[in-house]
């Protein structure tokens, strides 16, 4: 099931997306409004609205976004970072937060921060957590996942290089576009992940290239902290990161999910 969050007549609702999401057919999509919330047992109301008559919102409002750095070897190499030790074992993953205030939805603008001159896109698979959990054993990981969506880990690269902690470089307002919806029936093991800027391909990878799998990451993160329903994990970006300029349209497409599109604007 595809679960979208949207506003209609001033109210916020969740809905199940019905219809084909093939390119060109999106105009036919409808939302069957959900009674309740997707983090508990819920029913479809049977009340349907055309998707192109509503404004899609971020599919979830996370309490926290836990992000992973350097999880694709080729991307780590392109930024000059080693991720394996001298014996060829992967180093512990880099883990950081993006604040809830950095989250925006599909179609929302990315506001170029005033303190950067080198904004980059990072297309990433996002995992949406469905239930409160901690110390999740590997065999229970599937039980705590609601589904998957597309993310852009927008990064002020110059600030990231300049400052030891990445809170400003990756945590400014609008640095975390999510969407367009949550796909609940998906095996995340080997999906194409692509980023285009103004229609031109910049990043292309497969989730099978991750150094640590979704299972590995959830075991690792929940060893340290409780995850809450709606929390989001960003799983790292494949090679090909590059600059974004004011006026650019950046799109993240993940096989089996859909496309998340945002435009870069000057921060007002
Ligand atoms: Mg990233």
Structure, described:
- The structure is a single chain.
- The protein is mainly β and 268 residues long.
- The protein folds into two domains: 2-56, Roll (SH3 type barrels); 65-266, Alpha-Beta Complex (Fumarylacetoacetate hydrolase, domain 2).
- Helices cover 11% and strands 40% of the residues.
- It is built from five helices and 20 strands.
- The chain has helices at 73-78, 141-144, 157-162, 167-171, 214-222, and strands at 2-8, 11-18, 30-35, 43-50, 55-57, 65-69, 94-98, 103-104, 110-112, 119-121, 123-129, 145-152, 155-156, 176-183, 192-197, 200-206, 232-234, 242-243, 249-254, 258-266.
- The strands form three sheets. Strands 1, 2, 3, 4, 5, 6, 7, 8, 11, 12, 14 and 17 form a twelve-stranded mixed beta sheet that branches. A five-stranded mixed beta sheet has the order 9-20-19-15-16, with no helix packed on it. Strands 13-10-18 form a three-stranded antiparallel beta sheet.
- Strand 15 and strand 16 form a beta hairpin.
- The longest helix is centred in the C-terminal third of the chain and has 9 residues, at 214-222.
- It is globular.
- The structure holds magnesium ion (MG).
- Magnesium ion binds next to strand 6.
- Residues 67, 69, 122, 124, 153, 234, 236-237 line the site of magnesium ion.
């Amino acid at each position: 099931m595809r679960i979208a969050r949207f506003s209609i007549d001033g109210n916020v609702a969740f809905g199940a997306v019905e219809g084909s999401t093939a390119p060109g057919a999106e105009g036919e999509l409808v939302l069957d409004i959900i009674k309740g919330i997707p983090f508990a047992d819920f029913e479809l109301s049977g009340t349907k609205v055309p998707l192109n008559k509503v404004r899609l919102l971020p599919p979830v409002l996370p309490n926290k976004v836990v992000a992973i750095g350097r999880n694709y070897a080729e991307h780590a190499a392109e930024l000059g970072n080693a991720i394996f030790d001298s014996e060829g074992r992967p180093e512990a993953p880099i883990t950081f937060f993006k604040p809830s205030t950095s989250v925006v939805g599909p179609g929302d603008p990315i506001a170029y921060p005033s303190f950067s001159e080198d904004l980059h896109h990072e297309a990433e698979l996002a995992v949406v957590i469905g239930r409160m959990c901690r110390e999740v054993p590997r065999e229970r990981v599937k039980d705590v996942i609601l589904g998957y969506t597309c993310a852009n880990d927008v990064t002020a690269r110059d600030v990231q290089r300049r400052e030891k902690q990445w809170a400003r470089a990756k945590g400014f307002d609008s640095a975390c576009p999510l969407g367009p919806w949550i796909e609940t029936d998906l095996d995340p093991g080997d999906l194409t992940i692509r980023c285009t800027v103004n229609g031109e391909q910049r990043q292309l990878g497969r989730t099978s290239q991750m150094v640590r799998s979704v299972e590995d990451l959830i075991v690792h993160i929940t060893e340290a902290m409780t995850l809450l329903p709606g929390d989001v994990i960003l799983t790292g970006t494949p090679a090909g990161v590059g600059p974004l300029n004011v006026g650019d349209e950046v799109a993240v497409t993940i096989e089996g999910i859909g496309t998340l599109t945002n435009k870069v604007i000057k921060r007002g």
